[in-house]
């Protein structure tokens, strides 16, 4: 019984870690895309 509980705990931890990784990756991707768009807009617009 203890093995089952610890296995479930490990599985949940692994899933949460993977989900968190995806979230962080998506946030970074959005930030990079936004920064790129801003750079393009600024370079096109005469300062």
Topology of this protein?
Blueprint: H1 2-44
Kindly describe this structure.
By secondary structure, the chain is an all-alpha fold. It has a domain at 21-47. Helix content is 91%, strand content 0%. The chain is built from 1 helix and no strands. The chain has one helix at residues 2-44. The longest helix is centred in the middle third of the chain and has 43 residues, at 2-44. It is rod-shaped. The N and C termini lie far apart (68 Å). The model has no long low-confidence stretch (mean pLDDT 94).
Count all strands and give the number.
Answer: 0
Q: For the CA atoms, what is the radius of gyration?
A: 20 Å
Morphology: rod-shaped
How many angstroms separate the termini?
68 Å
The helix fraction, in percent, is over 70%
Oligomer: single chain
* Strand and helix order: H
Rounded mean pLDDT score: 94
Q: Report the total helices.
A: 1
> Would you identify the regions where 5 or more consecutive residues have pLDDT less than 50?
none
Structural class: mainly alpha
Strand content: under 5%
Largest sheet: none
How would you concisely characterize the structure shown here?
Helix content is 91%, strand content 0%. It is mainly α. It has a domain at 21-47.
List keywords for this structure.
47 residues; single chain; 91% helix; mainly alpha; rod-shaped; 0% strand
């Amino acid at each position: 019984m203890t093995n089952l509980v610890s296995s479930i705990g490990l599985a949940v931890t692994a899933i949460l870690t993977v989900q968190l990784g995806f979230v962080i990756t998506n946030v970074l991707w959005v930030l990079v895309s936004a920064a790129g768009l801003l750079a393009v807009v600024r370079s096109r617009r005469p300062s």
